[in-house]
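[AMINO ACID CHAIN]
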Amino acid sequence: MADYNPTNTAAASCPSPTAGKWEAVSDPLPPVANANLCSCMMDTLSCEITENTKESDYGAIFGFICGLKDGKYCAGINKNATTGPYGVYGMCPSREQLSFAANAYAKAVPGGCNFKGKATTKEAAATPTGSGCASLLKDAGVDGTGTVAAAAAGPTGAGGRNGSASGSAGAAAGLSAPHFTAGGFGLGMYVVGAVASGMAMILL
């Protein structure tokens, strides 16, 4: 062991995205889970997905909302690993992400908080009272494409780590929404072209 002299000590760099081989950029990284930020955001919503809505129904609603206006309503939950723009709420639980998108849609479309009874209106908090909410929400921005500094990330989130939730301006570009698994959801399917199937399922 004393005679061992390694010659290759440089850390390997991540490869550039190549279709079918490597499909994730190394910078920026996705936001770190921050349960406090998600809770603050939920307090500001006047439209949210009901708790009894089945997770199997989420995909069609995501597809409908995120397929409109080049993903405008889903910029805050965008999580495209290939091109790298992330919304700050992309690490929130699936119902909270979908509620954020549904609320953005409902604010733009009169009577838009319905989705065949899968969404409901509620009174939004004028000033969320959670720990550090004012600062977190200001950094996140109205559309969720801002940047929440690491120092303000606050309590440990679902991932069991403290850290930052970061976003990127223009996060709707290359928009992707989650696919769903039994245990929740992760990165996945593109929603471009999903409007037709979503409209077939969702009564506005």
